[in-house]
Amino acid sequence: MRPGDIKILLVDDEASILQFLELGLRNEGYQVMTASDGLTAVNLVREFHHHIAILDVMMPGMDGFEVCSMIKKMAHTSVIMLTARDEIDDRVKGLKLGADDYVVKPFSFQELLARIEARLRNQFPHLLNEVTIGPFRINDQRKEILFNDSMLSLSNTEYDLLRYLVINHGIVLSKSKILDEVWGYDFGGQENVVEVYVSTLRDKLEDDDHVLIRTIRGAGYRIDLP
């Protein structure tokens, strides 16, 4: 991962939180721009061209929800919202407006770093040299995946499928969703092609008992990692 290539926009009206996060993220190597109100944040979007926006929900004037809605229309960005309230309605509202993740205050800095890295893996994989997720090491530039430090021999489609499953570990992925994301929306084949490729991956991972790539009956597949 090259943090120096990654830009993060921090928006929070609490100066202490803003300073703490800015210092921590700069120490991790990220480029950081800060704003203490929503209007300033929106104006910065045009000049900073950030990858990740971290928005506080409760701000005077233009709140985090409004900022999220506006910047999602202005730029290709991932939004992580900070909220002091773990309310379902708040999370649903934010997600409908385009938020990609939520972190509830108080939170650990390491948790926020993990959320940032997860968003980068999903939305900006070209910024990552190599990503380690559990026993997997994924190198997008070389189109290689190592499992427990052993190189897997994968076709292009096997690589794309395994990468998609690993990056979304813990999430049940339906066959139709997998087809759309791996084979493409215009793929005219049958869903059973997913079963064939999953079976091949299980063989290569020596996952005979299906404990790594799990079949969730009637729903799809899920990779479980430690």
From TrEMBL:
Modification 4-aspartylphosphate occurs at: D56
Annotated OmpR/PhoB-type domain residues: 128-225
Keyword Repressor: no
Coiled-coil ranges from the UniProt annotation: none
DNA-binding region location: 128-225
UniProt entry tagged with the keyword DNA repair: no
Keywords: DNA-binding, Phosphoprotein, Transcription, Transcription regulation, Two-component regulatory system
Gene3D superfamilies for this protein: 3.40.50.2300, 6.10.250.690, Winged helix-like DNA-binding domain superfamily/Winged helix DNA-binding domain (1.10.10.10)
One Pfam family per UniProt: Response_reg
Domain Response regulatory per the UniProt entry, residue ranges: 7-120
Signal peptide stretch: none
UniProt xrefs under InterPro entries: CheY-like_superfamily, OmpR/PhoB-type_DNA-bd, Sig_transdc_resp-reg_receiver, WalR-like, WH-like_DNA-bd_sf
UniProt-listed SUPFAM superfamilies: CheY-like (SSF52172)
UniProt protein name: Response regulator transcription factor
Organism: Alicyclobacillus fodiniaquatilis
Organism placement in taxonomy: Bacteria, Bacillati, Bacillota, Bacilli, Bacillales
